[in-house]
Design brief:
Elements: H1 9-18, H2 20-26, H3 37-42, E1 54-56, E2 59-63, E3 66-69, H4 95-108, E4 114-117, H5 127-137, E5 143-147, H6 150-153, H7 160-167, E6 172-176, H8 186-197, E7 202-207, H9 216-228, E8 232-237, H10 252-265, E9 273-276, E10 285-286
Parallel strand pairs: 3-4, 4-5, 5-6, 6-7, 7-8, 8-9
Antiparallel strand pairs: 1-2, 2-3, 9-10
């Protein structure tokens, strides 16, 4: 299935400086075009089993107490391991329509405690549109959890105005997505300091990727660095294997061995939970 390459200028500059750890995540791999019958059996169009949980085209209610919301299907770059790469999973709607649906649905379901803003990347939207959305989201009583790769792929897009808007939201978390220490550029570190100064709590999720970070020393450096700069390592994800991403998959046994090493070597707060999505489970399945 075709998933076009998309690399912005900032990420190209990181590739020039660091090479493989960045290019491997965004440059199209030969393995994507050499899918065998067996590889198709390993992959899925919908590896996180989201399709049947759509309550609106842009809202998914899969887990108890929380919902996923998408305001765009666009991202700064196309991660080659993206688990949504094969899905045209929602129709593009205006932010106003999405917010109306979100408001109505949360009012009808008062047990929803958390709204998760997922990708496409909300922070890739035009500044004026994004600020309007954040202002409206700030009126919701639920916890807001923002997932974004803006700090990995476009730190300049996280403007002072946006950081100020985020700081005005009473209950929110910002989840970064760093997979390798090379992504922590001076530009991203500067924005992280501003987020912390604004009082915005930070978490990080990492995807375990073959030949990139399936190495205990690499992950130790990443998680310890994140912890030092005020980002709590939150999840280490087993790959959600979509069609075309099979070459990135790491055996769970290797992942568990890496976690055993990290538990011995890192402060407790620097160790994420190693998790995966399992069909039928209405929560992340904790492997370690």
């Amino acid at each position: 299935m075709n998933y076009p390459e998309k690399i912005n200028n900032y990420t190209k500059s990181l590739i020039q400086k660091h090479g493989f750890p960045i290019s491997y995540q965004v440059k199209k791999q030969d393995s994507e075009n050499n899918l065998t019958d067996s590889s198709f059996k390993k992959g899925s169009i919908d590896p996180t089993f989201e399709e049947k949980y759509h309550v609106f085209s842009n809202i998914i209610h899969k887990f108890n107490g929380r919902i996923l919301v998408f305001f765009t299907n666009q991202c700064f770059c196309h991660c080659r391991f993206c688990f949504r790469r094969n899905r045209d999973f929602f129709t593009q709607q205006t932010p106003g329509k999405i917010l109306t649906n979100l408001k109505n649905y949360t009012m009808e379901n008062p047990d929803i405690d958390e709204i998760i803003l997922s990708g496409g990347d909300l922070f890739s939207l035009e500044l004026k549109t994004l600020r309007k959305i954040l202002k409206e989201l700030g009126k919701f009583k639920q916890i807001l959890r923002f997932h974004s790769r803006v700090l990995s792929f476009s730190p300049s897009s996280l403007t002072d105005e946006i950081i100020s808007d985020l700081s005005q939201i009473k209950s929110s978390w910002f989840v970064t997505h760093f997979n390798h220490p090379s992504e922590l550029s001076p530009a991203s570190l500067k924005k992280i300091r501003k987020l912390r100064k604004a009082g915005i709590p930070l978490l990080n999720q990492t995807v375990l990727l073959k030949n990139l970070n399936d190495d205990a020393i690499v992950l130790k450096k990443l998680f310890l660095t994140l912890y030092k700069i005020g980002i709590k390592p939150y999840y280490l994800h087993q790959l959600d294997t979509a069609f075309g991403t099979e070459a990135f998959n790491v055996d769970e046994g290797i992942g568990k061995s890496i976690m055993e090493f990290l538990l011995k070597e890192l402060p407790g707060g620097a160790v994420p939970r190693y998790v995966k999505d399992v069909e039928g489970n209405l929560h992340k399945t904790i492997l370690v």
